[in-house]
Amino acid sequence: MEMELRDRDGLARICRFGDVETPALMPVINPNLIVISPREMKEKFGVEAIITNAYIIWKNHDLREKALKEGLHKMLDFPGLIMTDSGTFQSHVYGDVEITNREIVEFQRDIHADIGTILDVFTEPDFSQEEVKAAIEETARRGKEAKRYRGDMLLAGPVQGSIYPHLREYAARKMNALDFDYYPIGGVVPLMENYRYAEVVESIIHAKMHLNPSKPVHLFGGGHPMFFPLAVLVGVDFFDSAAYVKYARDNRLLFPHGTRKLEELKYPPYYSPILEKYELEEIKEMEDEERVRVLAEHNLYISLEEIRRIKQAIHEEALWEYVESRAREHPQLLRAYRKILEYGKWLERFEGISKKSGFFYTGRESLKRPIVLRLKKRLRRFKSQGPVISVPRPWSRNLERLPKGARVRTPFGLIPLELEDIYPVQQSEFPWEESLELPEKFEEIAPEEFDLKKIRSIADYQFGKGAGAALFTGDIKIIKSKNTGKIRNVIVDGEHVASLRAEDGFFTLRIQGAYRLHRKFKFPRLRVVVNDDSAQFNKQGRNVFAKFVVEMDANLRPGDEVLVVNEKDELVAVGRTLMNREECLNFQKGMCVKVREGVDRPKSSLV
Q1: Residue 521: closest CA among 588, 440, 467
Q2: Nearest to 145 by CA among 112, 120, 172
Q3: Under a CB-based contact definition with an 8 Å cutoff, are residues 22 and 235 in contact?
Q4: What element of type H or E holds 12?
Q5: Nearest-angstrom CA–CA distance, 492 and 550
Q6: CATH class of the domain whose range is 7-342
Q7: For residue 265, what are the contacts with CB-CB under 8 A and spacing of at least 6?
Q8: Are 319 and 550 in contact (CB under 8 A)?
Q9: Is 434 exposed, middle or buried (0-12, 13-18, 19+ CB in 10 A)?
Q10: pLDDT at residue 605 is higher than 60
Q11: CA 483 distance to own-chain centroid
């Protein structure tokens, strides 16, 4: 099975992994104590994957024989993906397990688990750095051994490292070098249980930095829905949860904002179709077995519903806003979110050039998002010293006279007036009003001159310094919308070079514009390089798929306009990338560039 990217918002992504759509929750099934059957999870709750413990099955003679005879899917009566854990968590709880790494891997293979896990060495938060490093080395040794015995089973290589970021990186590099199919982040349960969320997200980030981005990442034991948004934001694809039944046995209910005790609950704070069937007092008076069943169903529903909300936020490209709102529901979640923002420079590499949704300010953390860091970095290309103005939006269209070199005072800082429409400057909402301020005296700029400066400035911001002159020199004709007065298309020397998108203020390149940038910028700037097998189809306007990508400009981001070239650096197409370099060079499935025009099939219509 290969991950196929379908939708994204930064590191967060919706992928297909076999028949499972991620991000996904794997409910934990204890074959000795089944409260909700796997079949019912599939048919009633839509669960696509579950996880069970191979060591627990192996240790019980009857279960072991049944699993070996029938296979895991038949034994559990589950028609979806089944992952098995190896007993590592039992070693954390009880101190040791009665099985070797080879034995448990072979057992998982023989009972036909879809994904099996090596017997890694759990690293406790109080371990010394020397103890953690020794555990990582032993885990890697066992991982190398396990690959010889796994057969056709996908194999998970857990990344340990305790609370030490540099050792998480060390473990991730070692496990990544062994090329596992699946990467769980291990050893975080003690941190989760003590609300040490900042250390958990830091562990995830330092592992993600050194793992193949085309492989699934799983957070072992991260099963509380209040933590899901933060974890998905930093790239977690799978969660496992025993919390749905564990909390039910303790008469506790899960909600996205936290946990409530049944006896203290008078009004359910969130809708739940399970709770809708009963009065709370009725649930409190149930026999233990029935009450545990009802609470477990509620907890499972709430957990899966939170995953669905997160997916919708990814689809809308509004996950940052969603996480900021969720983070304020617990002080330690907010602390963890602020820890994530410390890694903004790295996260920016995965952020799209713009988003479907606007930029919504929810607090001071909003202005530290990666997309704002990018804006401020790119604005350094502009050295304007003109007058500072404050006017209501739309800025230039609210001015009868245009100040030359004007800069607009915004919550993002001073923005050159000609960049007024780019994302996120124009597409933002803040909880304060703008005032009208103009300098008494200023030098004016003619509207035609302002338009030319505007298109060149946007191109310099979007593609790099010098792009504006390369694209827009010659006999220039600017076409504007009759309804809005905004620039729509730019014609240079009779050729359609680029169109300006109304939704985010950036350019869509046409093939003639691509030729101009190709001549201006040296290899590998703005380029995605494809092999000859792909190039012949891309010339005809076909999309670029990741497995055919040979190289890519490391400065390109998802959503950027790109020049598709062959290995001789000959232009073959122009389009919009869906991935960054790390992803394009590692994914073996899915589209990397959505091609707009090929050199053999240019489109002539204006858009």
Answers
A1: 467
A2: 120
A3: no
A4: strand 12-17
A5: 32
A6: alpha beta
A7: 253, 280
A8: no
A9: middle
A10: no
A11: 37
CB-CB contact of 350 with 558 (8 Å): yes
Ramachandran angles phi, psi of 426, nearest 5°:
-80, -30
For residue 589 the two structure tokens come to 């499935």
Q: Which helix (H) or strand (E) holds 231?
A: helix 228-233
Segment 379-386 shows an average pLDDT of: 86
**Cβ atoms within 10 Å of 345's Cβ, excluding its own:** 11
The CATH number for 351-445, chosen from 3.90.1020.10, 3.40.50.20, 1.10.645.10, 3.40.50.720, is 3.90.1020.10
Domain boundaries, the chain: 7-342, 351-445, 454-598
SS3 content of the chain, % helix, strand, coil (to 5): 40, 20, 40
Whole-angstrom distance, CA of residue 523 vs CA of residue 538: 19
Q: Which of the 8 DSSP states describes residue 123?
A: -
Residues 11 and 2 sit within 8 Å (Cβ to Cβ): no
Concatenate the DSSP letters of all residues of 294-320 into one string.
HHHHHHHHHHHHHHHHHHHHHHTT-HH
pLDDT digits (tens, 9 = 90+) for 249-304: 999 999 999 999 999 999 989 899 999 999 999 999 999 999 999 999 999 999 99
- The continuous run of DSSP H or E covering 219 comes out as strand 217-219
Q: Which residues are catalytic?
A: 85
CB 461 within 8 A of CB 377: no
Q: Provide the total of helices (H) and of strands (E) in the chain, helices listed first.
A: 23, 28
Burial per residue of 458-481, b for 16 or more beta-carbon CB atoms within 10 angstroms, e otherwise: bbbbbbbeebbebbbeeebebeee
**Could you tell me how far CA 490 lies from the centroid of its own chain?**
34
pLDDT at 440 over 90: no
Confirm if 23 and 48 have CB atoms less than 8 A apart: no
Closest CA to 101 of 122, 111, 87, 113: 87
CA distance 478 to 203: 51
Polymer length of the chain: 607
Could you tell me the pTM of the whole model? 0.95
Give the orientation angle of helix 197-208 with respect to helix 165-177, to 10 degrees. 40
| 454-598 CATH | 2.30.130.10
Q: Which amino acid is at 543?
A: N
Which H or E run contains 572? strand 571-577
CA angle at 156 for the pair 44 and 92, rounded to the nearest 5°: 90
